[in-house]
Amino acid sequence: MRFLPAFDNAILGYHDRSRIVDDAHRGLSVAGARVVLVDGRVSATWDAAAGTPTGSETVTVTVTPLRRLSRSEHAAVTEEGRSLAAFLSDGDSDRVRIGPSAA
């Protein structure tokens, strides 16, 4: 499980990206989408939004699956998303929201 930033070399570094991303989602790599790898394949996109509803910096990581995630994948994405939110907010937030599958 890995959350990759926009324009990450793992996706952009090779002309043939079929090992990591399906043809249907190949445009995400050059569009600058932040992606989530599940078992080494692009399976979702992610974004982070900051807000201050309680006066402290709150970050919510939002994940949009590109396919249906299994229960164990969903749990792993949630756990990694919480870690990312905590990192981005200097420990103030562990909020993650997983939206419906885009597929």
Report on this model:
With 103 residues, the protein is of the alpha+beta class. The chain has one domain (2-98). Helix content is 26%, strand content 29%. The protein contains three helices and five strands; from the N terminus they run βααβββαβ. It has helices spanning 9-12, 27-31, 71-88, and strands spanning 2-4, 35-38, 41-51, 58-65, 95-98. Strands 1-2-3-4-5 form a five-stranded mixed sheet, with helices on one face. The mean pLDDT is 89.
Q: Rough shape?
A: globular
The percent range for strand residues is 25-35%
> Biggest sheet: strands side by side, in what order?
1-2-3-4-5
The stretches of 5 or more residues where confidence is low (pLDDT under 50) are none
N-to-C series of helices and strands: EHHEEEHE
Report the major sheet. Answer: 5 strands, mixed
What is the number of domains? Answer: 1
**Terminal Cα span:** 20 Å
Residue share in helices? 25-40%
Rg, Cα atoms, Å? 14 Å
What is the residue-averaged pLDDT?
89
The counted number of beta strands is 5
In short:
The protein has 103 residues and is of the alpha+beta class.
Give the arrangement of secondary structure elements.
Elements: E1 2-4, H1 9-12, H2 27-31, E2 35-38, E3 41-51, E4 58-65, H3 71-88, E5 95-98
Parallel strand pairs: 4-5
Antiparallel strand pairs: 1-2, 2-3, 3-4
